[in-house]
Write a structure and sequence with these properties.
Radius of gyration: 31 Å
Largest sheet: 7 strands, antiparallel
Mean pLDDT: 86
Number of domains: 2
Helix content: 40-55%
Distance between the termini: 61 Å
Number of strands: 16
Low-confidence stretches: none
Length: 691
């Protein structure tokens, strides 16, 4: 009956772990970001020294639309153009250079703004690095990519509220500084009851339908082909959101990932003299997965962030199951799951469209599978029994291919594999001794079997051969999966990114690097790579602000703000681990209890040390700082499980403290949720908190 109750409790705890992971995933997906993408892209060229004219795309705006009024009568409505918005994907210039886009609202396709009484609109921004000091009012925006920005009138004293499309029905778009990749352009205005400039507005803000009138052909293109390509600028029309929350806006690191994916889609197309930027820190495998997300959900924030969020939920689940098996405590696994879910920073980092969480997931999976082997060994001397080592080795290889610096913590997994081999050899010695003792205990000579051996002696030979084969199969499976898997898959995963890598690391016109050299560059990026865009925060900072935006009424701060209660739990777990290690070391004799205690403490403690050491020299070190936090949560979960399981007053008091801690953890998570999700709050509140 007692065993039945224990199994029932274990099953219930396991269900709760799954439920926590599912809730974490659902909440994360709900605040992940917009589904709206910008369709295909178009590279707008700048005028070269030998060009006869400036490369231009001319749009023709619809002058009117027929619709039914409230009385059901068909009426004609006219348009007044008020805003021109663009969504820029990249500027192919050196970091820090000023880039200018110009739109001329004109009366005819062949006229200019100055000659036709139209208006010249411009947008000037800095390519990544700010062109002036942060506190300089004249500083150009350096976060112009993959968000909507308005082209403003160059007329200093203009009082116009727009331009009547019936008169000004053409818009000419040019780049004044460098070749620019444009995702989309949108013309926004209002409907009018007549075609008079003083006509009454209906009060409805709309997208003014537009078509490509003409586009300057490139070398080898016909005018029709050029115009057809330029249709990519208007293939995803929707009212642009100027909301400053991350729901519609990417962080700096996400911008780099999106640029890389855009160049993947562009393939071998390149512009002579273009300066290309892309992901130089995370490896090709991570970018491939992100690209797959955009393939499913479009070039949108949700598409970019989908698989990282999925990986985060997977990391929560794998981590909880690992802690459960390591400590042999269902409660410890559940506590880890709760700490992971409510730490706030984990939710924030899970919603970042970079390979960060993908690396964490594959590493934890590698660790968990290797620990299965360490704890139980192999059932049989065949490759089917070595499946945990196969998954462990491949997952470790994938983690390294996502970020080269994962080679350090994965080396820790390899050490755990070595410890598992040692334990398996001890099991060999044990079973071999039993077989030998059985053979020596034979009172009378047994009939000889094939090969001249008695059944007992044959058993001795069988045990020796079985464990010899187990060791060989384990070493081959894990070693080949990890080493050969890393080499083979490095080349395979680099193939989709061949063209982006050639554009970044070599000369697209005459590549000097093959796929092997490009794959090596991708691997080394985890140690030496530097992206043009950076979140500019210290990865070791508990309060890691990734994006801050200010508006007139509402603003958003998106950051990995660690829950203070989770911090206290982590520190308590660390203190408990140090105490256990000192206690075991000082023990005069180690029995099974001391060995188990050391084992469940030393593995996450060693992981913590390796993660922090890696973070000290790795690029984008926040992934390893996050890993360090997760190991601290493992130690905290073990401490909670240990103290709450004690008898009498100590255990009862600790159980009360645990539930109070859970309540405070949930309360602080609720307070930090707006920051973890990047939701807009009143600007006054933002200013009061952050200054």
């Amino acid at each position: 009956m007692a065993n039945f109750n224990e199994r029932k409790k274990s099953s219930l705890a396991l269900r709760f772990i799954y439920i926590v992971a599912l809730i974490f995933l659902c909440v994360g997906l709900c605040v992940l970001g917009s589904f709206r993408g910008t369709g295909n892209t178009y590279e707008l060229k700048v005028q070269g020294t030998g060009d006869a004219e400036t490369p231009t795309v001319v749009f023709q705006l619809n002058k009117s639309v027929k619709e039914k009024n409230d009385e059901g009568e068909e009426v004609t409505r006219y348009y007044r153009l008020q805003h021109v918005y663009v969504n820029v994907g990249a500027a192919y210039a050196k970091s820090g250079e000023a880039i200018t886009l110009r739109a001329e609202v004109v009366a005819s396709s062949g006229s200019s703004a100055s000659s036709s009484g139209g208006r010249r609109l411009e947008l000037t921004f800095s390519n990544f690095a700010p062109s002036a000091a942060e506190d300089d009012e004249k500083a150009l925006p350096s976060d112009a990519y993959y968000r909507w920005m308005e082209l403003s009138s160059t007329a200093s004293s203009s009082s116009s509220n727009g331009w009547l499309v019936n008169t000004y029905s053409y818009v000419k778009l040019t780049s004044r500084s460098a070749n620019v990749l444009i995702n989309e352009i949108v013309f926004v205005g209002e409907k009018l009851v007549s075609n008079s400039s003083s006509a009454e507005s209906t009060g409805e803000t709309v997208i003014i339908p537009a078509s490509v009138y003409s586009a300057t052909p490139l070398v080898g293109q016909t005018p029709d082909e050029a115009a057809e390509n330029a249709k990519a600028l208007i293939d995803s029309q929707y009212l642009p959101s100027l909301d400053n929350s991350r729901f519609n806006r990417l962080t700096a690191s996400e911008t780099v990932s999106m640029m890389t994916i855009a160049e993947m889609r562009a393939g071998g197309n390149y512009g002579e003299g273009n300066v290309y930027e892309g992901e130089r820190v995370y490896g090709a495998f991570g970018e491939d997965i992100l690209a797959f997300g955009t393939l499913i959900f479009g070039m949108s924030p949700f598409g970019l962030r989908f698989f990282p969020m999925l990986a985060a939920a997977g990391a929560l689940l794998i981590g909880a199951l690992f802690v459960r098996r390591l400590t042999k405590s269902d409660k410890a696994g559940l506590v880890f799951a709760v700490l992971f879910a409510l730490a706030s920073a984990t939710l924030a980092l899970a919603g970042v469209g970079t390979p960060l969480m993908l690396g964490v997931f594959f590493f934890l999976l590698s660790l968990d599978m290797c620990h299965r082997f360490y704890a139980k060994g192999m059932d049989k001397a065949n490759f089917a029994s070595a499946w945990p080592l196969l998954i462990s080795g491949l997952s470790g290889a994938f983690a390294i291919l996502i970020h080269g610096a994962f080679i350090v913590p994965v080396a820790g997994v390899a050490l755990l594999f070595g410890a598992g081999i040692v334990r398996q050899q001890r099991a060999r010695r044990y079973h071999l001794d039993l077989a030998i003792a059985e053979a020596e205990a034979e009172e009378a000579p047994a009939p000889q079997a094939e090969g001249g051996l008695s059944p007992a002696k044959k058993k001795v030979a069988h045990v020796a051969a079985e464990y010899r084969n187990k060791t060989a199969i384990a070493a081959i499976t894990f070693g080949c999966a990890l080493v050969l898997g890393a080499i083979v898959f490095a080349l395979l995963f680099a193939l989709p990114l061949y063209y982006p890598y050639v554009k970044m690391y070599s000369d697209p016109a005459a590549p000097s690097m093959n796929i092997f050299g490009l794959a090596a560059k991708s691997f080394a990026g985890g140690f030496v790579g530097v992206n043009a865009a950076s979140d500019g925060a210290n990865a070791f900072n508990i309060f890691y602000s990734m994006l801050r935006t200010d508006g007139t009424a509402f603003s958003a701060v998106f950051g990995a703000f660690m829950n203070p209660v989770a911090i206290l739990a982590a520190l308590a777990g660390l203190a408990f681990a140090v105490y256990n290690i000192v206690r075991v070391v000082k023990a005069k004799a180690w029995d099974k209890t001391e060995r188990n205690l050391l084992r469940r403490t030393l593995i996450p403690f060693a992981g913590l040390v390796l993660a922090l050491v890696t973070a000290a020299f790795a690029k984008e070190a926040i992934v390893f700082v996050l890993l360090a936090w997760l190991f601290l949560f493992m130690l905290a979960a073990d401490a909670v499980s240990d103290f709450t399981a004690r008898e009498q007053r100590t255990g009862k008091t600790c159980r009360v403290i645990m539930w109070v801690g859970f309540g405070l953890l949930a309360a602080m998570f609720a307070l930090y949720f707006v920051f973890a999700a990047g939701l807009p709050v009143a600007s006054g509140i933002i200013t009061a908190i952050f200054g």
